[in-house]
Amino acid sequence: MSSPESLPATGREWHLISRPRGWPAPGDFALREGPVREPGEGEILVRNIHLSVDPYMRGRMNDVKSYVPPFKLDEPMTGGAIGIVTASQAEGFAPGDHVLHDLGWREHATLRARYATKVSPELAPLTTYLGVLGMPGLTAYAGLLEVASLKKGDAVFVSGAAGAVGSQVGQIAKLKGASRVIGSAGSDEKVRLLTEEYGFDAAFNYKSGPVAAQLKEAAPSGIDVYFDNVGGEHLEAAISSLNVHGRATICGMIAQYNATEPPAAPRNLAMVIGKRLRLQGMLVMDHQDLMPQFFEEVSGWIRSGELKYRETVVEGVENAVDAFLGLLKGENTGKMIVTLAD
Ligand SMILES: NC(=O)c1ccc[n+]([C@@H]2O[C@H](COP(=O)([O-])OP(=O)(O)OC[C@H]3O[C@@H](n4cnc5c(N)ncnc54)[C@H](OP(=O)(O)O)[C@@H]3O)[C@@H](O)[C@H]2O)c1
Q: What three-state secondary structure class fits 254?
């Protein structure tokens, strides 16, 4: 086994200790010291550097059947992470390699090397493999180009537009020839970022007034594509503004992740018939085949400065739950990342 860093006996890891009903509270989680296991045959030991906190993790805290199994109580939670290999018993992996893997929410992880992907800090900053060049980026790319079948000249509306997925959806739409791109976000500062830095044609703060009226004003000729990150009132407004044969990618419904009652909206679903709309749900995991094309095209746009991105970085594993709760409240601009140390 090759291991230049001395192996720690224990490391800190976040456990879910009770299932939240409604908004999660800090008391639903515990940061515990757990043993660090030496890697066996085919395994690597990784010291995590960056952890991802994502909205889908809220769903994993509920004990319901879904496309990803619920977190188990009193066990370390999982999630995207970037780390450095500190010991390896796996061919092709050596100490010092950087890897992307799914055993986040902890300082050290022992895992089968086949579940890790090597990433290069020379090619792109490590955090981007969790954001603009990672899962949220691919979600935006696939959701817009494949699921919504974006065409040149389409008018596009995206909610959650200052977040990791949404900010990329709007910019990719412009780069691919959308005639007009409109975004909504939860603060005036985020709204300014959309029009002044990301090149959106119009943007509004959904907290400042009814979404339907603000969308109609921003898109007087209607929209052809809606990329939904929010659900509820946003989806209802989009259905009203969608033109005949419009398409909507239903990517997320963050407005209801902490709701204890189902939302009343959309109340206008019958409009789907007359307008012949296509509303299609998506899961990024179905679009992994697009990864090489996505990586090449998006990294090119980043290098040329045509696509911009922001990250909100919270320091310290002890602050990971605060970062996650902050994400649900809109404290992030762009991808929310927890950085441990380099
Ligand atoms: N289907 C898939 O495969 C897939 C994959 C990745 C992500 N997603 C979904 O895509 C969406 C965005 O994910 P992300 O990772 O890019 O997160 P994000 O947008 O970076 O962060 C979440 C944002 O949601 C907004 N938000 C919170 N509560 C809201 C509410 N009640 N109404 C409107 N906006 C609200 C906040 O921004 P404001 O300040 O603007 O409120 C917050 O910053 C989520 O719904 C997520 O579940 C789906």
A: helix
CA separation for the pair 9, 179 (Å, rounded): 57
Q: What is the pTM assigned to this prediction?
A: 0.98
Q: Locate the ligand 1 atom nearest the alpha carbon of residue 282 and give its number.
A: 1
Reported in sequence order, the residue ranges of the chain that DSSP labels E, i.e. its strands, are 10-16, 29-35, 43-52, 81-88, 98-101, 108-112, 117-119, 155-158, 180-185, 202-205, 223-228, 242-250, 278-281, 311-315, 335-339
Of all protein residues, the one whose alpha carbon is nearest to atom 41 of ligand 1 is 186
The answer to whether the CB of 54 is under 6 A from ligand 1 is yes
Does ligand 1 have an atom closer than 6 angstroms to the CB of 311? no
Expressed in angstroms and rounded, the spacing between residue 77 Cα and the centre of ligand 1 is: 20
* Tens digits of residue pLDDT in 227-269: 999 999 999 999 999 999 999 999 999 999 999 998 888 999 9
